[in-house]
Design goal:
With 763 residues, the protein is mainly alpha-helical. 75% of the residues lie in helices and 1% in strands. A hairpin with a 2-residue loop joins strand 1 and strand 2.
């Protein structure tokens, strides 16, 4: 009964909280709508009696709903006015203040772990044109322990500041355009300028949360403009006021950010005609995803031009004056052509003209340079473009081309995005990877769909799932990583990969004790040390040579894995041979040296040397890729400290295993060795099959209804497809066959030795 009452009370409390949230947001929404209606009445020349009093009442009601520190003080305490122009100014300022108050509520609720309330306030913020609102929403959808982190607070605050800075500039652009067309009266002018001024006065708490230093200069008072507003003197006054206002706006763009955004701008414009051509045919949308990409890229290009305009005005004054207006006009024309689904040649021509302005007029380039840690968005664009082209090829029935493009998209994602997301959100990284391959939660991945030539609807849905997962990864990467996290990640990578290598080497060396095996141990150890040196050389080359081979990373890893599997097969045979040679019959201990030589595998030494190298290098190659990605995420020292700590841990574990393992019973240790080698072989078979599926060398046939947890793939090499289940089991088939073969061979050898005539004894 007590439990039931507790549940009832909890449900009632949740309902009350939900109603309170709805009332708060409804109050803001109602006040904003009423302000818009009142402004329309003012512009029309008729202001109903009691308007100011009603608005004051609504404002006071909303003020009581606000909980964030400083939010209530933003709303005006008195809306009484002596003229409609003065009332318009008060309402414009109130409309801007509502945005700042909503932002404070977003951050306050997010810090407190109330993600739903934070998102409810966030959707009430007016966005600038072409704004991207997905990133913050995805961050708030993360688990509670992640969505309330300080990094998310900073990302949301920076998102809001960027929105309002862009919106201030768009409002001023619209106002200046309206003045040029003589379409402005005094009330409209006062309302617009007051709203701009309120939006530009960011609360200090928001700037601090965004990590932006206040400019220190106060916003200039509103300019005193008189009719006619089109007069050169009035236009000059407004332009001068805007220049002063621009100096007070927060600057979120560092020089490296400007370079990155300029490259993105050229790339966005360049891919518009490709996406449009793939998605539209004869004025009809044939592939909605492709057409939506074209629309989105045009909008993002327009947004980037608005974001870069102040920097260009300051640093590229001559090109800005000569080409900015033309650039904006041509982008607007391109957006109109895409929206009206014009002829493909017209869209291509417009995009080419814009690219010529960007490259020839502003001197921009789409080529990457500098720190790769700043080009995650460009990599996402590469992935998006490759997937779009892959889908178009699949729609046309060119399945091999579609698979090749899918692989290009996956390798780009794997080399730049997945390795960065893994230490932050392993579940998201694995889900995104599987969306490229076999799929998750009953939804097939892209490769599985291509392998069975799925129909258009399923293909489109599969590609869309992969893109949504990738967008979530990009959003996660926008939150900065602390040096401690980078160092710990480096430690865990070294520890994980090193433990795999140590387990295999320990399993091998377990049966190599005694003076007669000293040479064998030396060769295996030499192979391992050679692999460590090769891993270091690979890391050094990864800055130059390996970068050019990045697209072949999965294939290189697959080749290394298959070599390791071959060597491991030979080692497995050797382990069983040793076990039965020692333990099958006590008589075998007294065999002659000649008899031992007849059964010894002459390729045994080569196999052990090879496995010593490939076992370590297989892990070292993967570790090299991880370390390069961590270096891109942060500074060098956290990675160095993590690597040193991981190396020390592995060294201690290795010494413990190899020193204390030498004191264990020989025959029992060989049994453990056999079990370890078999388990490792199963994992190697499964992971190698997975790599073959990833690079397209092996098809995927998902098992419907089968869900395999992520850890089973990492530690056991098992994946939810027929290949991912059957191929690892082949390792057990081989082990069983090797066991029977060695058992029979040992028995025949024992019988042959027992029946052999005794050697003559010297007198």
């Amino acid at each position: 009964m007590k439990v039931f009452l507790s549940l009832v009370l909890a449900a009632a409390a949740f309902s009350v909280c939900g109603n309170v949230r709805a009332d708060q947001v409804d109050d803001l929404h109602a006040l904003r709508d009423r302000i818009d209606t009142a402004l329309l009445d003012i512009y029309g020349g008729e202001v109903p009696e009691g308007t100011a009093a009603e608005l004051q009442q609504r404002t006071d009601a909303l003020r009581a709903d606000l909980n964030a520190p400083g939010a209530r003080a933003l709303l005006p305490a008195d809306l009484r006015a002596d003229s409609k122009e003065q009332l318009a100014a008060l309402l414009g300022a109130t409309r801007g203040a509502l945005q700042q108050a909503a932002a404070l509520e977003v951050l306050d609720n997010q810090r407190a772990g109330r993600a739903a309330q934070a998102e409810a306030w966030r959707v009430m913020i007016s966005l600038p044109q072409f704004a991207n609102a997905n990133d913050g929403g995805l961050l708030l959808q993360q688990p509670l322990e992640e969505s309330s982190q300080p990094g998310v607070t900073q990302a949301l605050a920076k998102e809001y500041v960027a929105w309002q800075v862009t919106r201030v500039r768009q409002l001023l652009d619209g106002l200046q355009h309206a003045i040029a067309n003589d379409n402005v009266d005094a009330a409209y002018l006062q309302a617009s300028l007051s709203e701009v001024q309120a939006l530009s006065q960011f609360p200090v708490t928001i700037l601090e949360a965004a990590g932006v230093k206040p400019t220190g200069s106060a916003t200039a008072p509103l300019p005193l403009l008189g009719a006619p507003f089109t007069a050169e003197s009035e236009v000059a006054k407004l332009a001068a006021w805007r220049e002063n206002l621009e100096e007070t706006l927060p600057n979120l763009l560092k020089p490296a950010d400007v370079t990155r955004l300029e490259r993105l701008l050229v790339r966005f414009v360049s891919v518009v005609p490709k996406e449009f051509r793939n998605g539209v045919d004869n004025g009809q949308v044939t592939i909605p995803l492709e057409y939506q990409e074209a629309v989105q890229f045009v909008q993002q290009s327009q947004g980037l031009v608005n974001e870069l305009a102040p920097t260009w005005r300051r640093d590229l004054a001559a090109p800005y004056k000569a080409h900015h207006a033309e650039l904006v006009a041509k982008l607007s024309s391109l957006a109109k052509q895409v929206g009206q689904m014009a002829e493909v040649p017209a869209v291509e021509s417009s995009a080419k003209e814009i690219v010529n302005i960007l490259e020839g007029g502003f001197g921009l380039s789409a080529r990457r340079s500098g720190d790769k840690g700043q080009i995650v968005e460009e990599t996402a664009l590469d992935v998006r473009e490759a997937l779009s082209n892959s889908l178009a090829a699949a729609q046309a029935g060119h399945w091999q081309e579609a698979e090749s493009l899918r692989l290009d998209a996956y390798t780009s994602f794997d080399s730049e995005i997945e390795v960065r997301v893994l230490p932050r959100n392993p579940a998201l990284a694995n889900a995104t990877e599987r969306s490229f391959i076999d799929g998750t939660d009953g939804s097939p991945g892209i490769k599985a769909l291509l392998d069975r030539a799925a129909p258009t609807e399923e293909l489109t849905a599969g590609y869309d799932r992969a893109l949504k997962h990738m967008d979530a990864c990009v959003s996660v990467l926008k939150v900065a990583v602390s040096p401690a996290t980078i160092g710990f990640t480096a430690f865990t990578i070294i520890a994980r990969e090193g433990m795999e290598a140590i387990v295999i080497l320990a399993a091998l060396l377990a049966g190599m004790r005694g003076v007669e095996q000293q040479g064998t141990r030396r060769w295996v150890s030499a192979g391992a040390w050679l692999a460590i040196a090769a891993s270091g050389l690979t890391f050094w080359l990864s800055k130059t040579l390996i970068q050019s081979l990045a697209r072949y990373g999965e294939k290189l890893e697959a080749i290394i894995s298959i070599l390791a599997v071959i060597i491991l097969l030979m080692v497995t045979n050797w382990v069983f041979h040793k076990f039965y040679w020692v333990g099958w019959n006590a008589k075998l201990r007294s065999l002659s040296k000649a008899s031992q030589r007849t059964v010894t595998d002459r390729w045994e030494w080569l196999a052990l040397i090879g496995v010593g190298f490939l076992t370590v290098y297989r892990e070292g190659f993967e570790t090299t890729l991880f370390m390069q990605s961590l270096l891109l995420e942060g500074s060098v020292w956290p990675v160095v400290i993590g690597v040193l700590a991981g190396t020390g841990f592995i060294a201690a574990v290795g010494v413990g295993i190899f020193v204390f393992g030498a004191k264990l019973p020989y025959r029992k240790l060989l049994v453990v060795t056999g079990v370890l080698v078999v388990s490792i072989m199963v994992t190697f078979f499964g992971s190698t099959a997975r790599l073959f599926q990833t690079v397209g060398w092996l098809p995927i046939h998902p098992i419907k209804g089968l869900t395999v947890p992520t850890w089973a793939g990492t530690w056991l090499g098992l994946y939810p497809s027929w290949e991912g289940i059957v191929i690892p089991m082949l390792a057990l088939v081989y082990v069983g066959g090797a066991w029977l073969w060695v058992k029979l061979s040992s028995r025949r050898a024992a019988v042959a030795i027992a029946m052999a005539p005794p050697e003559p004894v010297a007198a």
